[in-house]
Amino acid sequence: MITSLWPRLDEFGARITRYAYKQVEEMMVPQVSHGHRQWRCEAEQAGRILRGQAERKKQFLLILPILEQGMIQPKTEIKRAGKNRKAIKQALSDLREANSDGGNAVELQSLIEQACNFYLANGCFPESYEEMQTIPVLKTGILPYAGDDGPEMGQSYRMSLDLEQKTITLAIRSPDSLGAWSRTWREKTMLLPLPDPILARLKQGEALAPTLREVCEADGTRCAVLDFMVQVGVEAPPPWEEMQSVLGFDWGVRTLVTATVVDLDGHQIGRPFFLDTGGFDGRQARTRRQIDLLKKKVAMLEARRGSFPEGDPRGEPARKKLVVLRREIAQCWRKYEARNRDLAHLAANVLLLLATAAGCRLIAGESLKSLKSTGRGRDAKGKWRNWRNNSQVRGELWRVLRYKCFLAGVRLEWQQPRKTSHTCPHCGASADTYRSPEHLAQVEDWGAWLTCPSCGWNGARDYAAALNIARLGATFITHYLTTGRFYHASIADKAVKPLSYMGSGSALRLPPMVPRNHLLYAGKIYVNGWRNAVKLHSSYVTETMLRLCG
Ligand SMILES: [Zn+2]
Questions:
Q1: pLDDT attached to residue 531
Q2: CB-based contact 365:398 (threshold 8 Å)
Q3: pLDDT tens-digit series, residues 285-299
Q4: What separation in Å is there between the alpha carbon of 420 and the centre of ligand 1?
Q5: What's the gap in Å between 513 CA and the centre of ligand 1?
Q6: What is the CA(494)–ligand 1 centre distance, in A?
Q7: How far is CA 132 from CA 13, 120, 158, in A?
Q8: 453 C-alpha vs ligand 1 centroid, how far in Å?
Q9: 355 alpha carbon to ligand 1 midpoint, in Å?
């Protein structure tokens, strides 16, 4: 289906209906050999993929005009041709849209890299999205039942819920092992337990059509997963007039996130909060290095196997090893991506929790457009890897935070990042950064310590930036309240109020200062040690924190 509709990809860029299958239905005659509704569910999935690709193509059109030779490092005698990372970074930061949070920056970056890979393989940049993107066909099965007629009338699934007994009764139409579709599928029901979290949601909302999908493990294990979706109402954010304070956060140089609360009169409320990821960065970088290493081995083995003719037994050991190595690479990637996702959820939950604890209904964060680097890698490649790690974690965090805020009725507003880590939050003067309070003789652009030449304020650079971003957030509110218009001020604007710290006299509603070598520290309990923190269940942390704060 996707293959035959691929030439009409652009048409999926506009949504004429909520259901993707309706769009597909208008373009092709249904193949109803195994049931019309069954086909419609398949069409729904094909349509969703095409919609996603059409969005990606729109993003590609943004980067198409800036693709240039400079992004490719030509081959020299000692080096293979490769990507010019500096040029790519520059192009990305130039690609600013005046009115966006930069949430798509990560997407744009991956498109530029994909185009560069195309260049390295073909000697030219792609002229169209379709030229560089192979048709995305499903590798594992997925069937959204949204194309069917609902749980009671469905012709491909039937479902009934028993909230008292906490069970789901489900029947799924399917072929037998010989491929024959039986008419008696409705009689073969499954009884599944309803987990408590779903039950709680069901009491607030309504169940949607489920999705059946297949999961293929790297070791070949296959299993079926039923995604059960519940639609619930979302709490509306309060009117701007009721907002009294802002939680500002900054992506740190040394910490993942630093957060502070500021009110509209220029008072800092409570102390800052640091979310330190400790060994996490190192672990991720190690996993990436491992992936690079495995890839190198794969390339070597492929060359060796290629030196024997097809079917030659001498090529057999290389072939077997390749299977193992590819599996290992897939495992590493999964681990890497799962850790990023867990971290993003954890950080988003912590920010929302802090905002809730401090009564803030606006969270202000630096837009992702700058995707600043921490420059910690030893060589250029290490730096690039770090930068990409960070941009991926941050992109994921922003995405997760955006939807969690939406669900919680909290507003999230991006702020101009320029100069926020080189401005004194106390008096607004331009300030330099240094390696540490002991190294004030030499200015360091990426230094962790900020000292104000005018008023003498000094503190961690990330802390200063978080304060400045909160100030920008406060300005965003006051500007709207006085003019009725939304405006993202920059830190040099006169309207951005200098801060006074209320110090020990203030109601300390945020958890106390965090020792930097621990992820979370509230009261006397260490909630999480990062040493074993591959699997993070952030909801646990949130609950614990709520209890501690509340
Ligand atoms: Zn100052």
A1: 31
A2: yes
A3: 788 888 889 989 998
A4: 13
A5: 23
A6: 15
A7: 18, 12, 41
A8: 7
A9: 26
**What would the mean pLDDT of 205-224 be, rounded to a whole number?**
85
CA of 473 to the centre of ligand 1 (A): 19
State the first-to-last Cα distance of the chain, in angstroms, to the nearest integer. 53
> pTM, whole model, 2 decimals?
0.71
Q: CB of 40 within 8 A of CB of 17?
A: no
CB 40 within 8 A of CB 143: no
Nearest one of 490, 538, 1, 513 to 255, comparing CA atoms: 513
- Give distance in angstroms: CA of 431 to centre of ligand 1: 8
Burial of 405 (0-12, 13-18, 19+ CB in 10 A): buried
Spell out where 449-532 has E strands: 449-451, 458-460, 500-501, 520-522, 525-528
**What is the DSSP secondary-structure string of 237-282?**
PPPGGG--EEEEEEE-SSSSEEEEEEETTSEEEEEEEEE--TTHHH
* Residue whose tokens read 């950064």: 433
Residue 517 and residue 278 in contact, taking contact as beta carbons nearer than 8 Å: yes
3-class secondary structure, 101: coil
Indicate the Cα dihedral angle 179, 181, 186, 187, nearest 10°.
Answer: -70
Residue for token pair 């069901």: 202
